[in-house]
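Working notes for the structural subgroup meeting. M.R. asked for a predicted model of this chain before we commit to crystallization trials. I am recording the input and output together here so anyone reviewing the notebook later can reproduce the run.

Input as submitted:
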Amino acid sequence: MCLAVPMKITSVDGYQCTCEAKGIEREVSLFMLQHEEIEPGDHVLVHVGYAIQKVSEQEAADSWELFDQVLAEV
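Returned structure, recorded in token form:
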């Protein structure tokens, strides 16, 4: 099983971008989404440093809500 974390893109430079989630920034590769139109403000699912899927802002928020619920139970 793998886990992808929803993150918001803050800047794009070719096939690299900077993403942010919950105050944490990461450099992320856009190589796997090279045929998608990606721009700052978009949300992506990030797995081991690669953006693997573009998602809506609502999908990203829903995912974080579920993650927060799971963490509250631990």
